[in-house]
Protein 1
Amino acid sequence: MTGGKYRPVGSALSGPINAEAHALKIAVEVASTWHKDGASGQAEVPMGVVATIAVAGLLVDDPVRLAEAMTSASPTEFVHLARQAWAVAVTRRPDVTLWAHPLLRWLFAELDEPTRQRIKRSAVAALDAGQLELTATDRRFGCDLFGPLLGALRSRTATKVNAQMYTPGDIACALTALALDDLEAGQSFCDDTVGTGGLFRVAAQIVRSRGLDPADMLWFGADTDELAVAATAVNSLLWGLGSGVTLYVGDILNHPHWPEEARRGRASFLEQVDGLKAGMQALDFLKRI
């Protein structure tokens, strides 16, 4: 199955749609497609498909052409395109792939044809819902796509988005604005229940509104859910948080010094991949994590 012609979201939806509503639509479409194929569980696979489309969209100048290429590709060709996109991402930001690797495992698996087809159908669902119009444009700053997606994939019915780790933007904005007073470059932001990073997104918006660059800040996030942390890693690219991001998967009650532990882990990982100059070599290295 290769899917149909890529249709911009404007032709699929009537009237204007804000970024958060658009993210919710994409989440429901992808989760519905994945669940309809009888693929209960394995949320990391469709999450990884959406992450791949998001990362690829940041690497190209023409997202419409990318969408058409992904939509017209065969299931096997789509997996190959995904590996190429992540090879470039690993070369540019290996630290992000350290935390995002749970969303990449399907790229290394022995996939049978039905699984490849389910993966491709999920990709087409995201593209037909206009994902690249969201994640490959500045509209991505206005939402967290992965929060509702993870909730939809983990709920019994894809149309019911679980609020386990998804903080709606208005609430997050109010909470974060209250916590931020004076801001300056190099300031640290820490969320020890980071989920998919919703509070980071809003903090980054506030940073931009005050004439500063989120990439000049330090971002520390922890959570016990590795998929949520993996989503935060991808979101850090989408939201332009820069290289000052440090994430941690684990119980912070048992690891009160987790920021230092996470920093050491990041440094050790970067030392190991430093000698791998080719993107595919670095990507294959992630198999051993």
Protein 2
Amino acid sequence: AGLAQIPVRMFVGDSDTSWITSMEETRDEVLANNGDVTLEVVPNEGHIIGALADGVRIFDELDRAR
């Protein structure tokens, strides 16, 4: 419930199967509390998501959340 007023953007690699379930549960809990949340499962990535390493996507998400 404490996150309901904060935009939450989550990313997990599709081969990081132990984290996918936890992140889906977190997404569902935030949604149940009327929060603004997205979860993106990034194809061909593991726990460390190389596709996000340059930071561009992260900063784009932060700009959109303003």
